[in-house]
């Protein structure tokens, strides 16, 4: 409520006879005093928002953000965007947990399960959606899943989506062989020493679920899953830990097949590498969001989010990072390149993608991450 | 205040900034880690404050941690031996060379100007399937197909030796520099061969330097995290990787604290044993 509205209400109560003249003047005086005292500090506080920290996945994604979003935003508002990177959501959460409130502001988080984890740890903020009018362009399904976690409110805006599918070197593995074997190709003895995988326990369990014919959002035979993970480990050359490492392993032909992030594989294809990409049935779909961490300068962050969601910015970033934007293709013309990106859904319903169920994954996080850590090291 | 009292107080005044820094930056965080190790991680990832022995029971009783700890100590021991075997002749050569000692020492220090991570990653360009060595072997017609050389325990040890060799050389060099060269001449004049004078005179006198270099190499390699991550395969994790995983991936800071204290206790114990028998003086000389 702003000061004008407060004054109008007081005046109304005075005119209605609810307040006597003396009390009315006293309250007006007190309000004036409070305003006079707080305004210089409030101005200073607003002026003090000289920078906003943004953390993302690095590489081509960060380059795209810097070029198409941060630099123009700084030019327009004078607020500097300090961009940091992380190799994974777990690592970043640990850094945030160790930090002081306000040290980290906006994070490019992956998956609703990460959003739920941050919320459960008390790190979520409440966005004033009036300050983000461009939210209306976003696919409603992507917004609703976040609202369901935070009681109808939002701590983030959806930004892009993609898949973790199968990436393979066409020089050694044909498209037909991939279609025939699907996720099971990661367990094929023929490619021993030329297989890799992400060192992320969720991805490992998701793909092991597919390899053992189970629902990735509701596996019942965990022993079979651990056995599949062990087999994959024994056939693998390495677990990669970042997008840059994934690209390097494939480009240098250290490996022939792995699961990989759709945007990174598209970037490899753009560079001229003959790398194929396939989403197997029930492949791992995910959506990324721009999450505002509790203790951040909200107005500055909301302005940045609104700026980033503007169709021209969002499309430019999407074209740079090779992940389809969260913008609804039925409301916004997404141009020529985006419809060619892997995982893109022209209808904006995202019915073809299978997303991770936050309750299922977060409910088993402690037990499964530990178990995978052991298997990864030979147990 | 008497002169005696002032003199007694003076060293403490001079030491105060260093002691304050060490207390604030080492002992206070260490105390936090000790306290943390008795807390518990809840299902949501938040910490449960209290006094629980669960993490210590798990860290000390679970064979998984014990096995990785032994594997880490084994890799550290192999690295130390390789550093000693490779480092001693290099240090001897530098110590006995005339005129170009400063240049040789400068060359020894050069790798420190480049980030440790970059130096470690450089092996990927050398030993990778499309790396320099495979290219050379294929160009020379020695092999037809590239050999898979990376991502195993050998490359982890190689990366560690690459990182730690200068520490060994410097320590041995300092010890050799302190030996009067006329002692070897004296031994030779009394009838020993050059090899005998080395074995009977130079080597025993340089052992404190070798031990100091060995201790440094062992402690640093046992605590390494980057090298196995970059150059290791799926089974080549070392103990520090477990600490990283507990703290970062599993968000289990209490267990990570217990594990890191366990490693600290073992390596600290080694340093104490070394100090008891040889003293820290030689180590300081090598580091200086």
UniProtKB/TrEMBL annotation, chain A:
The keyword Transmembrane helix does not apply. GO terms for biological process: polyamine transport. It holds the Pfam family SBP_bac_8. GO terms for cellular component: periplasmic space. It is found in: Periplasm. GO terms for molecular function: polyamine binding. The keyword Metal-binding does not apply. Keywords: Periplasm, Signal, Transport. InterPro entries: SBP, Sperm_putr-bd, TAT_signal. Gene3D superfamilies: Periplasmic binding protein-like II. This is Extracellular solute-binding protein. It comes from Roseibium aggregatum.
UniProtKB/TrEMBL annotation, chain B:
One of its GO terms (cellular component) is plasma membrane. Keywords: Cell membrane, Membrane, Transmembrane, Transmembrane helix, Transport. InterPro entries: MetI-like, MetI-like_sf. GO terms for biological process: transmembrane transport. The keyword Ribonucleoprotein does not apply. Pfam families: BPD_transp_1 (PF00528). It comes from the Bacteria. Residues 69-274 form the ABC transmembrane type-1 domain. It is a multi-pass membrane protein. The keyword Transport applies. This is ABC transporter permease. The lineage of its organism: Bacteria, Pseudomonadati, Pseudomonadota, Alphaproteobacteria, Hyphomicrobiales.
């Amino acid at each position: 409520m702003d000061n004008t509205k407060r004054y109008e209400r007081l005046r109304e109560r005075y005119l209605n006879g609810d307040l006597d003249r003396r009390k009315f003047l006293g309250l007006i005086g007190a309000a004036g005093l409070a305003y006079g005292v707080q305004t210089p500090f409030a101005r200073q506080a607003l002026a003090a928002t000289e920078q906003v920290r943004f953390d993302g996945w690095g590489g081509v994604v960060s380059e795209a953000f810097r070029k198409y979003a941060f630099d123009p935003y700084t030019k327009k508002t004078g607020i500097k965007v300090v961009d940091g990177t992380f190799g994974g959501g777990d690592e970043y959460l640990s850094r945030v947990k160790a930090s002081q409130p306000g040290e980290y502001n906006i994070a490019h988080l992956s998956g609703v399960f990460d959003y739920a984890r941050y919320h459960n740890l008390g790190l979520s903020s409440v966005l004033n959606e009036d300050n983000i009018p461009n939210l209306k362009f976003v696919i409603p399904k992507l917004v609703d899943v976040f609202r369901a976690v935070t009681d109808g409110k939002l701590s983030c805006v959806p930004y892009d989506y993609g898949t973790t599918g199968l990436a393979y070197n066409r020089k050694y593995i044909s498209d037909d062989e991939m279609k025939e074997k699907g996720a099971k190709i990661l367990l094929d003895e023929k490619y021993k020493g030329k297989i890799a995988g992400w060192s992320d326990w969720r991805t490992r369990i998701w793909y092991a679920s597919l390899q053992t014919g189970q629902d990735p959002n509701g596996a019942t035979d965990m022993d079979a899953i651990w056995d599949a993970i062990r087999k994959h480990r024994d056939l693998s050359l390495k677990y990669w830990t970042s997008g840059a490492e994934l690209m390097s392993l494939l480009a240098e032909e250290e490996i022939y097949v792995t699961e990989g992030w759709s945007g990174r594989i598209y970037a490899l294809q753009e560079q001229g590498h003959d790398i194929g990409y396939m989403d197997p049935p029930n492949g791992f779909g995910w959506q990324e969001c721009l999450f505002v961490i509790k203790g951040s300068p909200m107005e500055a962050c909301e302005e940045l989010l609104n700026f980033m969601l503007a169709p021209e910015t969002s499309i430019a970033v999407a074209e740079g990072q090779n992940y389809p934007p969260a913008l609804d293709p039925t409301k916004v013309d997404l141009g020529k390149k985006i419809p060619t990106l892997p995982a893109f859904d022209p209808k904006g319903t995202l019915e073809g993608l299978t997303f991770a169920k936050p309750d299922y994954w977060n409910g088993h996080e402690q037990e499964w991450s530990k178990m995978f850590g052991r298997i990864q090291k030979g147990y | 205040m008497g002169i005696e009292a002032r003199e007694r107080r003076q060293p403490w005044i001079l030491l105060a900034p260093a002691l304050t820094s060490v207390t604030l930056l080492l002992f206070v965080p260490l105390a936090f880690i000790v306290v943390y190790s008795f807390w518990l991680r809840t299902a949501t990832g938040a910490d449960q404050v209290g006094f629980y022995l669960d993490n210590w029971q798990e860290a000390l009783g679970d064979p998984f941690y014990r096995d990785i700890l032994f594997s880490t100590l084994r890799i550290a021991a192999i690295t130390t031996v390789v550093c000693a075997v490779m480092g001693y002749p290099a240090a001897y050569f530098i110590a006995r060379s005339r005129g170009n000692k400063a240049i040789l020492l400068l060359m020894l220090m050069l790798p420190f100007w480049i980030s440790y991570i970059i130096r470690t990653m450089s092996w990927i360009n050398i030993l990778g399937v499309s790396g320099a060595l495979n290219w050379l072997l294929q160009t020379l017609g020695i092999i037809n197909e590239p050999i898979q050389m990376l991502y195993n325990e050998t490359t982890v040890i190689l990366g560690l030796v690459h990182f730690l060799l200068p520490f060994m050389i410097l320590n041995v060099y300092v010890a050799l520099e302190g030996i009067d060269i006329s002692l070897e001449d004296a031994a030779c004049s009394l009838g020993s061969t050059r090899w005998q004078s080395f074995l009977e005179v130079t080597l025993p006198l340089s052992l404190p330097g070798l031990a100091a270099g060995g201790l440094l190499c062992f402690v640093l390699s046992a605590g390494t995290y980057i090298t196995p991550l970059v150059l290791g395969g799926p089974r080549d994790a070392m103990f520090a990787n477990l600490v990283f995983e507990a703290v970062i991936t599993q968000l289990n800071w209490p267990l990570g604290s217990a594990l890191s204290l366990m490693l600290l206790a073992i390596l600290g114990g080694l340093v104490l044993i070394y100090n008891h028998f040889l003293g820290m003086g030689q180590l300081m000389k090598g580091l200086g």
